[in-house]
Give the backbone structure.
Amino acid sequence: MESASALIDQKIKQLGDWRGQMLAQVRQLIRDADKDILEEWKWVKPTNPGTPVWSHDGIVCTGETYKEVVKLTFARGASIEGSKNNYSKLFNSSLEGNVRRAIDIREGEKIKGDKIREAAFKELIRAAVAANARAHASRSTKKQAATKPPAIERTATDRPSKKSADTKRKATKRAARKK
């Protein structure tokens, strides 16, 4: 089985046009923005050879190629979009959803080489990683709370010094049954 990075390299080479060049450029910007990003190849089906995916504590974005666009879909785009920042202006597709947002890049458009868009794109990648980290931490906290028994606070007056009367009765009944 080939590595995801090798499959992405193969996809870029196979495209052989502006879409391959653009996918290579955004891939490099993604790697530059987050050195710990993980490249994956997902959703392979008989009708689809698969999709490049970049992850860090969850999916950051996917890189799909179509005839007219290279589409970068951000899994948590809606949660990082909307604030007053440079990167939210990059989103131009899937704007009506509650979770995802996307960037459609058409032939002739630039991200790499346009200093403002390049900086905004890297900022977007870092914001997406941060959103994943918050969600990951939230899931971990909820999971710990679900598995950890609730703490019982007791005061000195709550602690029985000897067996309670109820416990003594149960012990007496058990002893009587054994006879």
About this structure: Residues 4-137 form one domain. The mean pLDDT is 84. The longest helix spans residues 115-147.
